[in-house]
Amino acid sequence: MSKLWRSFLGYSDDNPNESYGKAVGRAKQMLSEGNYEDACRILRYAEKQKHAEAMYLLAWCHWKGEGVCEDAGRAMTLWRQAAKLEFPAAINRIQELENAGYFDK
CB under 8 Å to 8, separation ≥6 — which residues? Predict the structure, then answer.
């Protein structure tokens, strides 16, 4: 993971070889603590690297308006992208939304 991104988020002294998966784990902890803004910074970066779980979690942030602007369309786009990467929770969420009539199957 790039040192620049780690410095931006204040983790440059931690494990310099932290994977995106571990960074997303850190973001999940931040979400559980209500630190939505910092968590979303991590998730947005990991999402750009095509990390499916980051996409899924960031979608929930957009859906609820936590740490980012509430944006159902962006949330659904992120869930669809994560589902295309075969992330099971995203696949389930897309099916729930289809069943609720949010978009065509």
Answer: 41
- Inter-residue contact 30 to 38 (CB < 8 Å): yes
The Cα 4–Cα 2 span in angstroms is: 5
Whole-model pTM?
A: 0.84
Chain-centroid distance of CA 60 in Å reads 8
Which H helix or E strand runs over 47?
A: helix 36-48
pLDDT digits (tens, 9 = 90+) for 22-60: 888 989 999 999 999 999 998 998 898 899 999 999 999
> Given phi > 0 = left and psi -120 to 50 = alpha, else beta, which region is 77?
alpha
